[in-house]
Amino acid sequence: ETGVTQSPTHLIKTRGQQVTLRCSSQSGHNTVSWYQQALGQGPQFIFQYYREEENGRGNFPPRFSGLQFPNYSSELNVNALELDDSALYLCASSKYSGGATDTQYFGPGTRLTVL
Amino acid sequence: DAKTTQPPSMDCAEGRAANLPCNHSTISGNEYVYWYRQIHSQGPQYIIHGLKNNETNEMASLIITEDRKSSTLILPHATLRDTAVYYCIVRGYNNNDMRFGAGTRLTVKP
Fold it and tell me: Residue A106 and residue B31: Cβ atoms within 8 Å?
């Protein structure tokens, strides 16, 4: 167990709807990263939040957005859901040191199904 | 970041050492090698990471060749619970993301 929690565990939405996923970071961690994992593939980086601001973004459209709160928890919001957004959404927390020595610890994920 | 190459699948007998190879021939001097594993439908689990020297922790050992072009993750006494997809990731010093490939599906058999 990493101490990273995510909610909800599973979610079903229809195309065009909006969804909010939540993540609580491990104690002592101040950075949250979000990943999307499609079935049969490795996780793909969406973005990272540090000091309540986006600190790097992968190749995802603007309808994927996020927030980080003063307690370091985070939300991932996806607007105008598409069928291809069906995936396991993972968050990972870390203690920021500005580079590759920030070991990221993952939560259990939220399984999103878009119908 | 350097690209990694891993075999798509491997088998290992329970109780034996599992040696998972990773090729990263284009790695540069300030890039780290990370290993994670993912048991079905769970979040990736951090195993170990290293820069140049071999590393060992309670889960595994990481052996990095002297030229750093390849590495091997060693699970000394594999159990059935070690069945998972293992990801080798090369991460640049200034990169804040983990770039996962397809990984190696390790099956530990009784």
Answer: no
